[in-house]
Amino acid sequence: MPDHREEETLELEVAGVRYRSDDGAFAVIDAMATDADGAPGGHHVVVGPVGHLDAGDRVLATGQRQQHPKHGERFRVQRLQSVAPTDDEAVSRVLQRVPGVGPRAADALIERFGAELLERLDDNPRDVLRRVKGLTGEKLADAVEAWRAEAGPRAVRLLLERHGLDAATIGRVIRALGDDPDVDLLRADPYRLTSRSGIGFPTADAIALALGEDPASDDRKRAAVVHALALSEDDGHCHLPHDELVRRTTRLLAGRDAPWSTVDALAPGVALALKELIDDHAVVDREGRVASLELDEDEALLATIVARMSTDDPVLGIDVPAEPPTEDGTGGTGGAGGNPLPSAEQWEAVRQACGRRLSILTGGPGTGKTQTMRALVQVLKDAGSSVLLCAPTGKAARRLAEATGARATTIHRLLGFVPGDGFQHDEDDPIPDGGMLVVDEASMLPLDLAVALLRAVGPSTHVLLVGDVDQLAPVGPGRVLQDLLESQRVPAVRLSRIFRQAERSLIVRTAHAMNRGEPPITQPGPDDVRDFFFIDRSDALTAADEVVSLATRRLPAHYDVPAVGGVQVLAPQRRGACGVEALNARMREILNPGGRVAKGSALREGDRVMQTRNDHEAEVMNGELGMLVRVDGDDALLAMDDGRTVRLPLIRLDTWDLAYACTVHKAQGSSIPVAVVPVVTEHRHMLTRNLLYTAVTRAEKACVMVGDRAAVRQALGRVDGATRYTALPDRIREALEHATR
User: Fold this and answer.
1) Across 507-520, average pLDDT
2) Which of 156, 392, 533, 621 is most buried, taking the most CB atoms under 10 A from its CB?
3) Integer Cα distance of 296 and 238 in angstroms
4) 353: closest CA among 263, 224, 466, 520?
């Protein structure tokens, strides 16, 4: 066990980085302590949330010394504060970014030219840089060009260096400011950064305070309100109640560790800042619900579209019999050699889809959603009507096409997405196909994508939304499918009967049991297919050992699937011994220890990888999985799980993560041959019934759950981790009332 001691604060200068996690959050670094005069002191191995630091950075680190049984004494950091470099140190760092200028040359130039150095460099960089030993000819020309080309970024870097901002933050700011960073604009309004990609309020606030911003200023409060609202959208909310937004903003301004008295004292000022934003129409307040302009408009537009479609007369003109067919299309009665015939409730969904312009089909695994879509496609083909199927991801679309025999595509491709221009189809240029549009995995639809899709549906097209509302909510604001059902204004069929073949699967039976709050089924009957297993490991480290062993060796051999791509670990969260980060590191060292590293990335050839943001240009969506097959010059070749090969510039690998293990949230919409799911008490804050249900239903051949039965019981007792603030059901009802007046 570690030897915990008293908390202390050290002034440290980073000497080097031993290890940095792929997401940059955790690192092990070598650092030298310095005294009050900056003189060097003892060496320390520092661990903790220090992945943003680089050699030369100086910080005040607060933490405890701990004795590691294998690696000796380490200083575990709890809190960090940057130490601003002297002017000479800041200038030296800027100079060292010029090719051919090292620390000694930079110091020599500073000593020779003093305070006039930067001005002389801007006026005549060749005259200054030719004095650096070894810089002649082509090297000198490259150095001069580098100095001139970096004028804007250099000014920003120098400003932020002098105020103690770390190298990683400075890099993010420069990237956010674009091709021509304006240091004067940054100095005048640092909170403007919060509107730029990748820069949040904490970074902009640190810059503003370093540049002298008054902590009690109105600008700071308004920026904090806007950021708190944006963070709520990341949590899936379409709005926040007024008082909740004030509470979140005051906590953001006060800091995580501030006493409640400090937080409460900020509330009146924050409420005033919020009122000013509302009065300026920067945010919208509708009866105490505060939302961004974009989400408020999206929600209102979707409610209007849904209200119109749910009351429109059908346009297909197909007379569907009241009773399901008793023969399949070949003259047989279904079953062996043909497709199973639809049940009465499945047939009702077919009739409803043909008889209403907008309808919903929902149900759990094994209830026949795919069979219903197959029957619907057959009815439409027999009637000579067109049908188009789509899904959020490429793999789901391919699976849908194979199951139904109809053309299927991703939603983004269907809408004609063009990077930089957005969706090409809308109400003025609708999707060209009439007939029927079937949207599978509709539980994954966030508000903005649902709006883009339905507004592009022309007046001659019916829409069927298909999904499982008991899965996790979408990644993004809203819970559209659940809200449409809750409105009780959109006709829906919920399939409940589990069919005989599916009922033999322990995966299917366990999923339904857990959805009712019951424990997983681990004892098969005589006719059951044993495809679900539970391995009891109460300790997180022991559970992690079991997960790694199963995923890398035992399960690939038993099920004859590749370890990379055939087995997927689905963890509740990123941190901890059974978290995504630790499991990825361990599994890669077994499955791909010697892969060639992709330049500028932490990824290797042969790695299992996942896209973490929507890349519309490459048509690879957030959560899609694949393998980094090869580095080819400045490009990377990736083999995606949906069968595509994608070529990307190496620089764009920054949005890809290791994915031997991934979170359950990221796996929504995916199907995996064999899934391994750790469930331990260290993840208790993330554990919900919906999360376990989603994880288990990703597996095709087998699912192995490893962990603590107490943690499973805790998860099954929580139906959802958090409420999502949406107003869509009420707005649909209101829109219908207005339409019928």
Assistant:
1) 93
2) 392
3) 8
4) 466
Question: Residues 603, 658: contact at Cβ < 8 Å?
Answer: yes
- Give pLDDT tens digits for 266-300: 899 999 999 999 999 999 999 999 999 999 999 99
Asked if residue 235 lies in contact with residue 475, where contact means CB atoms within 8 angstroms, the answer is no
CB 362 within 8 A of CB 385: no
**CB atoms closer than 10 angstroms to residue 234:** 11
Q: Which two three-digit tokens encode residue 420? A: 């930089």
Cα 411–Cα 412–Cα 416 angle in degrees, nearest 5: 115
b/e 53-82 (16+ beta carbons within 10 angstroms → b): bbebbbbebebbbbeeeeeeebbbbeebeb
Task: Look up residue 162 and give its amino acid.
Answer: R
Residue 433's SS3 state is coil
> Are 508 and 403 in contact, with CB atoms under 8 Å apart?
no
The tens digit of pLDDT for each residue in 579-603 reads 999 999 999 999 998 888 888 788 9
Residue 594 CA to residue 61 CA, distance in Å, equals: 35
Give yes or no for a contact between 45 and 28, defined as CB atoms under 8 angstroms apart: yes
Residues across the chain:
741
How much of the chain is helix, strand and coil, in % rounded to 5? 40, 20, 35
**Measured between alpha carbons, how far is 202 from 208 in angstroms, rounded to an integer?**
10
What lies within 8 Å, CB to CB, of 501 at 6+ separation is: none
3-class DSSP state for residue 9? strand
Alpha helix segments (H runs only) across 280-343: 293-311
Tokens 């001659």 sit at which residue? 460
Phi first, then psi: give them for residue 255, nearest 5 degrees. 100, 155
Cβ-contact 678, 702 below 8 angstroms: no
Q: Give the C-alpha separation, 615 to 624, whole Å.
A: 10
Neighbouring residues of 328: CB distance < 8 A, sequence distance ≥ 6: 334, 338, 339, 341
Per the listing, tokens 């302590």 go with 33
Find, among 685, 696, 695, the residue nearest to 718 by Cα.
685
- Structure token pair of residue 491: 């006709």
